[in-house]
Design a protein that fits this description.
This protein is mainly alpha-helical.
Length: 237
């Protein structure tokens, strides 16, 4: 899984976890199976209803329309997800991490014809591999990408964070904090980051700096990350 760093309008740098090629292909296959199952069910229904030959074209149009609009409808109505993406914790977002508008979904859906349909996905795969931000042609045009929202494991589930061996703490005042304080800081930080609520991160930074009686020079997100690293450093030493 590739990552890339962006800076939001609030001057907060965040790292996006780009969905891997394998994950996106698997999500597409899951959606494909759902569409095949839909076709089978509808064909059986048409057969059971004994649709007359003169009206078959109308019935087929009703069947094909949801298939044609499958990805556009799901992603625009389900916050960037289709059933396949949801199964693998993937989501379509704008490059700044915010929710795309309908126009963004529409652009990437229209270019799906070139990316996937006509070229059997080869153009999409090549573009994603070259781009480095998980973007096929439709994403490039729409200013979107597909990210992975899979939960982290290991240190991310504790109050500790990974600290390099040569790390030098910046704020010794973090020793004033309790494990409960740090757990709450980390939880608020993670939840705000996942929901792209950068104002909360800014408020959290202000609150923590007041608590520690320090004046951070870093941006809010980096300051909180430093505080967590410093606490982990002193806890482990």
């Amino acid at each position: 899984m590739d990552n890339f760093q962006i800076e939001t309008a609030q001057n907060i740098s965040i790292t996006q976890n780009v969905a891997g090629i394998g994950e996106r292909i698997l999500a597409y296959l899951i959606d494909g199976l759902i569409m095949v199952a839909y076709i089978v069910v509808m064909m059986m229904l048409m057969s059971g209803l004994n649709v007359s030959a003169g009206r078959e074209w109308l019935f087929m149009s009703v069947i094909l329309l949801p298939l044609l609009l499958y990805f556009l409808l799901w992603e625009s109505l389900w916050k960037g997800r289709s059933p396949g993406k949801a199964a693998l914790d993937l989501r379509v977002v704008k490059l700044d991490g915010s929710k795309p508008a309908f126009s963004n979904y529409l652009v990437r859906w229209l270019l799906r014809i070139v990316d996937i349909t006509i070229t059997s996905g080869s153009v999409a795969v090549v573009t994603i591999l070259i781009n480095g931000k998980g973007q096929r042609l439709g994403d490039l045009a729409a200013g979107t990408t597909v990210i992975s929202e899979k939960a982290r494991v290991g240190l991310d589930q504790t109050i500790l964070v990974d600290v390099p061996e040569n790390y030098r703490p910046v704020y010794p005042q973090v020793t004033m904090l309790s494990d409960k304080d740090v757990r709450e800081i980390k939880e608020i930080y993670r939840n705000s980051l996942q929901s792209s609520n950068y104002r909360v991160i800014g408020s959290l930074s202000t609150k923590v700096s007041e608590l520690l009686q320090v004046t951070p020079e870093e941006k809010p997100l980096q300051f909180i990350k430093t505080v967590l690293k410093d606490y982990s450093y002193y806890t482990q030493h």
